[in-house]
Amino acid sequence: MTTIIAPLPNSSRRDDPLWLRMFHNYGHVITPLRYAGWVTDIETAGGGEFYIHADLRDGTEVAIASEYSLPVDPAEVTGWSAIRRDVEGTGTHTVLYDSTPNGPQRHHGNSLFPLLARIDGIDVPSRAPQLMVSATRTSPFGASRNQTAGIEGPASAIARFAEWSRRLTDREGYRRVWLRPEREGYPMAMFEGAGHTASVRVTRSND
């Protein structure tokens, strides 16, 4: 079976409790980037500042931070900044996105979708396929209601899958009963609540 998600980083810090906490806390950013095909890690800059690093496999990388270092608690992120730079450290870099309080995209604040949409749109030689997110709710009487998002880049679609799933559990009272393992394909989850069932799935746009 073709691997559709980048492997976990081969990091020497994977036994470090703080690294593990940061990697878990920013999973909502890291996992979409991995489905875009990029090994993604939590890195430390000088002075112990944390940022997210994605290897684009073309000699460049994307570094994501907030106004300064990423806080341990993502709820404290005031906005996102993303730059694309040469992995050789030549100093060449391009600002991709900046929604921090003084940035040009500050009106987006800490919203994740505009950041990931911008990253989905960058030019890379080997691009992951476009995806679609869909959801189905079924009543105890068998009536179904379907919802489908448009075609999106992989990072945006995976983030939307997480958002729709979270909405079912946090706002609509569903309980997740099954989640497809990462190694088995694109995300899919099943939910139950008060006799109703729901599913959320990600598929390739051309399937």
How does this model look, in words?
The protein has a 5-stranded antiparallel sheet. The chain has a 5-stranded antiparallel sheet with strand order 7-6-10-9-8, covered by helices on one side. With 207 residues, the protein is of the alpha+beta class. The two termini are 16 Å apart. Helix 2 (27-35) crosses helix 4. It is built from 4 helices and 10 strands; from the N terminus they run ααβββββαββαβββ. Strand 6 (131-138) and strand 7 form a beta hairpin. The chain has helices at residues 17-25, 27-35, 112-120, 154-170; strands at residues 40-44, 50-55, 60-65, 81-86, 93-98, 131-138, 144-148, 175-179, 188-193, 196-204. The chain is globular, with a radius of gyration of 18 Å. The model has no long low-confidence stretch (mean pLDDT 93).
What's a quick, concise take on this entry?
With 207 residues, the protein is an alpha+beta fold. The chain is built from four helices and ten strands, in the order ααβββββαββαβββ.
